[in-house]
Amino acid sequence: MEGYSIRWAKKTDLKTIEHLLQNSSLPTVGLSLASAQFLLAETKANEVIGVLGAQHNESATLLRSFAVISPWRGKGVGMALVKTMLNRLQEQNRTVLYLLTETAASYFEGLGFQFISREEIPQILLVQSGLDQACPCSSQCMKLEVRSSSKEKIRTYALSQGAHIAGFASAADFAEAPAGFRPTDIMPKAKTVMVLGKALSKGTVLSANKAVYTMQGATIIQELDALAQKVVFHLEEQGALSLAIPADAPYFHWEEERQHGMGILSHRHAAVKAGLGSLGKSSMLLTPKYGNRITLVTILTELELLSDPPYTETLCPDECRRCVDACPTTALNGQAVVEQKRCRSHVGTVSDRGHELTNCWNCRLACAARF
């Protein structure tokens, strides 16, 4: 399925928003940009596939008009809209949010919203939006108080210390990870997952010299582990227990027959959760600025920070198989899965002097998104 982007609505979008809400059996009263703002999810073909609105007064915000068209439901579009809106509202210092819903209470409860009585919602918000009359008494009312946080200061610190990219995800977003490999399996009170990345240089990727490629790869892993420790102490100075997951080794899970290893937490999947990019068919993280040249490290912290919005653009086209075709051991199945036994049979070698070297990075080199 093609990618999409998130943008603020303009006056010319109001008819489109009204049509989408009507098709979703949602109220269309109070659709005005004078006292509200609306985020749209839009495909590259300029089709609006989702909407989320926010009605403001001086002290609070009412989320409203949340809808995604049927073919795009279950694809993460709604979550992208919500996370983008929450981050934008926090930037605007709007930290008290309300909503009314008949169908999505469990969805928003999972995002931290609490059930309240209808009387607790400022009446002026309901009147301004027209939802005081449009939303039935059976609607469930919810509230979220977004903590004002130092997330951007933490990101800036990590970047100033040498990270090329940095993103944040909620520890609660990893429920689908295998048991034993979730953030809370490592740190039971973890609230936030922070992912940092450093990139190989373009020259290194293009070089055919195995010594050059091996050394820069090893150096980046060492630098990431050191960087993560700096950020951990920076977080703990703010009173939040924190820890760093090794960028590479050591780890425990090993299946000898399959030659299959798993780190204690998947940095790549954490990076996707943190909005840093998407996985390619090679299983490598693809990022908009550094392509597939990123190596990652992850930090867990008890400090509760808002997740970054997911990255929604398409970086690995459905029809592209360059990395799959470039693999000399057919270790890639085209579904972001690597058959490690086949890969390990060729990826490493030893120099005449006895130095371990990386022997193959064809999947990285062949990728159209490498830069």
Description:
By secondary structure, this protein is α+β, with helices and mostly antiparallel strands. The chain is built from 13 helices and 17 strands. It has helices at residues 14-23, 77-91, 105-109, 123-129, 131-134, 151-160, 183-186, 202-206, 210-236, 267-273, 322-326, 340-347, 362-366; strands at residues 4-8, 36-43, 48-56, 61-68, 96-101, 114-116, 140-145, 165-170, 192-199, 242-245, 253-255, 260-262, 278-279, 285-286, 294-301, 348-350, 356-358. The protein has a 7-stranded mixed β-sheet with strand order 1-2-3-4-5-7-6, sandwiched between helices. It has a 4-stranded antiparallel β-sheet with strand order 8-9-15-10, sandwiched between helices. Strands 11-12 form a two-stranded antiparallel sheet. Strand 16 and strand 17 form a beta hairpin. The longest helix has 27 residues, at 210-236. It is elongated and about 80 Å long. The two termini are 23 Å apart. The relative contact order is 0.11.
Tell me the span between the first and last alpha carbons: 23 Å
Tell me about the largest β-sheet. 7 strands, mixed
- In what order do the strands lie side by side in the largest sheet? 1-2-3-4-5-7-6
Instruction: Calculate Rg over CA atoms.
Output: 23 Å
Helix proportion: 25-40%
Report the uncertain regions: none
**Total helical segments:** 13
Mean pLDDT: 93
Mass-distribution shape: elongated
Alpha-beta classification: alpha+beta
Tell how many strands the DSSP assignment holds: 17
